[in-house]
């Protein structure tokens, strides 16, 4: 095991003092070697702000996220010794569970300054916070404006369907035989499907109809999901979507019988601007089904 003292403290160069939810930090400006602990919010935000990434953790980057092939996926949960060997001068990490193995924010701070993100606020707020600390607000505002323009086009094209249809984004857990609905207000915070739907002005199944983390038991499909006019099905590529298609209670849902189900490949429950754009296209396709 390598000792932290075996490595220099973050290198040398110009530093900037910033106030974060973690307190006052001195961060390098610009950073030269950045590690993104989370492959969703952290990685996407780093790419959006054109930070020099040397690695990322948690899970393989989604196909719609333009991570350079030269940037490796690191061990997951994060291996602090591996991160030490990369000698980062800045680390990005969610504040989900600072003492956990997956988000070891407290221990990472002994390696390099750590800038946090939160799953309880929008991706735009996370990106603005990071850009403000790193003096890259122009890049953040450009990403946010690009997405807003995309949303405006969809709202103009499908305004009636958006106003009238109740929708739900969900994925299926075949072992527990339950759906996980990605509405706002569950224990998972602001899931990306709910964020983008809110930007569009759409109507979702309220979190108080769901379990604490969005669960809907199979026997409750009719009662809960039957209220949806259309369904966005997230297909993680693990066979769960195919298992769901075999369930009689799924096939009886009005939205399923009417052909108002849009299947979206990939896990897009968390992320930032790239996942937001990906989901905007998916919601647009679903509303087109509503209008068909």
- Average of the residue pLDDT scores: 93
Distance separating the two termini: 61 Å
- What is the overall silhouette? globular
Major sheet summary line: 6 strands, mixed
Task: Report the portion of residues in β strands.
Answer: 15-25%
Briefly note the structural class of the backbone.
alpha/beta
Q: Helicity, in percent?
A: 25-40%
- Counting DSSP H or I runs of 4 or more residues, the number of helices is 11
The H-and-E topology, N to C, reads as EEEHEHEHEHHEEHEEHEHHHEH
Low-confidence stretches: 1-11
- How many β-strands, per DSSP? 12
The gyration radius over C-alpha positions equals 20 Å
Give an overview of the whole structure.
The protein is α/β, with parallel strands linked by helices and 292 residues long. The protein has 11 helices and 12 strands. It has helices at residues 41-48, 80-86, 105-108, 123-134, 137-164, 192-200, 221-224, 240-245, 248-251, 254-257, 273-291, and strands at residues 15-20, 23-28, 34-36, 53-56, 90-94, 114-117, 166-173, 178-181, 203-204, 215-217, 230-235, 261-265. The strands form 3 sheets. Strands 7, 8, 9, 10, 11 and 12 form a 6-stranded mixed beta sheet that branches. The radius of gyration is 20 Å and the shape is globular. The termini are far apart.
Keywords:
single chain; 292 residues; alpha/beta; four-stranded parallel beta sheet; 12 strands
């Amino acid at each position: 095991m390598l000792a932290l003292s075996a490595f220099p403290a973050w290198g040398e160069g110009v530093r900037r003092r910033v106030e974060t939810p973690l307190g006052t930090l001195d961060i390098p400006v610009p950073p030269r070697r950045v590690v993104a602990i989370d492959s969703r919010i952290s990685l996407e935000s780093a790419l959006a702000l054109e930070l020099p990434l040397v690695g990322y953790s948690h899970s393989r980057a989604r196909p719609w996220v333009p991570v350079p092939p030269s940037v490796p996926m690191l061990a997951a949960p994060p291996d602090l010794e591996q991160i030490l060997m990369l000698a980062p001068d800045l680390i990005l990490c969610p504040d989900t569970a600072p003492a956990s193995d997956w988000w070891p924010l407290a221990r990472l701070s002994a390696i390099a300054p750590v800038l946090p993100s939160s799953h309880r606020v929008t991706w735009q707020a996370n990106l603005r916070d990071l850009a403000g600390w790193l003096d890259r607000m122009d890049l953040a505002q450009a990403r946010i404006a690009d997405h807003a323009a995309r949303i405006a086009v969809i709202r103009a094209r499908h305004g009636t369907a958006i106003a009238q249809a109740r929708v739900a984004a969900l994925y299926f857990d075949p072992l527990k035989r339950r759906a996980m609905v990605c509405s706002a207000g569950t224990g998972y915070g602001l899931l990306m499907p709910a964020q983008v739907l809110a930007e569009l002005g759409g109507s979702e199944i309220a979190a108080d109809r769901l379990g604490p983390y969005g669960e809907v038991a199979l026997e409750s499909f009719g009662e809960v999901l039957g209220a949806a006019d259309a369904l966005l099905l997230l297909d993680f590529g693990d066979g769960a979507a195919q298992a769901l298609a075999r369930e009689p209670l799924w096939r009886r849902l009005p939205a399923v019988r009417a052909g108002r189900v849009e299947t979206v490949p990939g896990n897009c429950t968390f992320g930032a601007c790239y996942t937001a754009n990906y989901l905007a296209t998916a919601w647009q396709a679903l509303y087109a089904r509503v209008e068909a």
